[in-house]
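Let's study a protein:

===
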Amino acid sequence: MTYSTRYRTLTTAALGLASAMLLASAPFATADPGAGGKSLVVLGDSFTANGDIGAALENVTPGAQPDCSHGPTSWPTQLAKNLNVWGTSDFIDMSCRGASLVSGPGFTLAHEARSADSAGSFGPRTKTVLIQTGLNDAWGENTVRLRQTLLNCVLDLIRGCGPEAAAEGRATDYRGVSTQQYLERIKPVVDYVRYYAPNARIVFVGYPEMNAPGQQHWCINVLGVGTIVQQRAGAPIELWDRMDAAQRAAARTLGVEFFDAKAVTAGHGLCSPEPWLAGILDPNSELMGTPVHPSSHGDGVVAAALRQLIAG
């Protein structure tokens, strides 16, 4: 099967939610997987690519091109260095800020997968494929994305960002996040990777802890001199919790692994005494880090735990 055929097959499958029917009609069964492949392949969003606040601000500009640059201390970068594949042909990180499962308008998981494929990433030599995605999608009854939730809802100290914010169209509609929805959106890419990288371990990477269990508020440190406390953060908290549950259940259903980033970052959420997440130009966490994204230390902890998983 030529790459162009693989491109069309993946695009068709990923854009449709009736993935089983689409995959059944794709000409996978008679094709031979390509030779080669990279040892470590990473697909994901801004929690994967990470980077500084400047890049994050550029990414919210209307009409901006997808930003697929990667922070020097992102967990994939630190992991690749820990595994001695950084800077070699055995590693590729296709994560992009704003990337989603299927919603767009930036790169979707299918875009990233086929870009990785065109770079020769999938083959019998591929050992590990790590996927971290889902928070940037539109879910439920509105099209509000995560960045809108963070900017327009979490920082709204007058109305708050409680559970009602989803119904009011001010926050991502967490009510639409379910195992079935997540499964339907990610399965075509998992099937695609499985076919072309038959020996690879596929791992869904969860998101880090944002708040302690039962906590209903979020904190964002500003400039190292003060903290914005959103006392009613039920909407983003529910989104994170449901995303975590959907990723875990989808991984079980698909027979892939789930890496519990929440567990390895426990006790270091936004309101903790020692957060492993960046504030807003906060020198105490990560001065130039993207707000509400992992600090270099937080990414380092995730990278070390992933190394142990992969090497073990």
About this structure: The longest helix spans residues 234-254.
